[in-house]
């Protein structure tokens, strides 16, 4: 492999001379009862020599195995494909909705009518409903994309640190497209009760704990110098580092609580205040001091000009009733 001096061969055969330096193969071969030697599993792909001080004497090699090189190549390919698919499936509903709206606007103009914002919402519901297996996305699909990217970054970041750079720029694009889709393309979902996004916090916490074991396992089995240790030493190092990092995670979770102490203090104060004033009668406000909400307009029809698709011809029709 690159980085290793080429040995001299005996009489042009494949047998290396006895003076050849083959220390770079240590830990990557095993012998058999017949006296033969076989290279098994991961073998060196690129090696870096170790010198004594400033001299040219080589005392050892640090090699990158073909397993690490293959894992890096696979991670780079998988992550870039994941980003490309995510961006593509965010652009498709935007394009479909805009094309449909443009066609409908031309049709309405030909008939002398105005394309209203309610008609736009109807098109969004037809092409981009917020439900599973639809172009408008869903809570499961949107968070699953984030969970996959987070898992690739945290579990294999020790092998391919450049994934963090890919994640930075890809998420800038993804979040911008996701915000645009949710604001202007996705149909407003029906107001049904749901568990919210709190369930996904447990998923991300589980990925974080799994990433600890994954990174420690890769460091012990595939990286220099721990990969050259004996099996018993590797097992002890894995258990020690994994438990240490897990304990650190628990301590940090306890120190930095999800709810800040000042928020807890304010909540306790409010609870005490409500208990002290629970026996009092509610304050009666005179009718003339209250506000009249009958004249408040909460419709969305008259706000078509503020919508990003208003430039395409969306407006309020004079014949359309207010909500």
UniProtKB/TrEMBL annotation:
GO cellular component, one term: membrane
Segments forming domain Anoctamin transmembrane: 66-265
MF (Gene Ontology): chloride channel activity
Keyword Membrane among UniProt keywords: yes
Principal localisation: membrane
Superkingdom classification of source: Eukaryota
Pfam families with a match to the protein in the record: Anoctamin
TM region(s), chain numbering: 79-99, 143-169, 235-257
Recorded topology in the membrane: Multi-pass membrane protein
UniProt subcellular location: Membrane
Keywords, alphabetical: Membrane, Transmembrane, Transmembrane helix
PANTHER family: ANOCTAMIN
Name assigned to this protein: Anoctamin transmembrane domain-containing protein
Organism: Alexandrium catenella (Red tide dinoflagellate)
Lineage: Eukaryota, Sar, Alveolata, Dinophyceae, Gonyaulacales
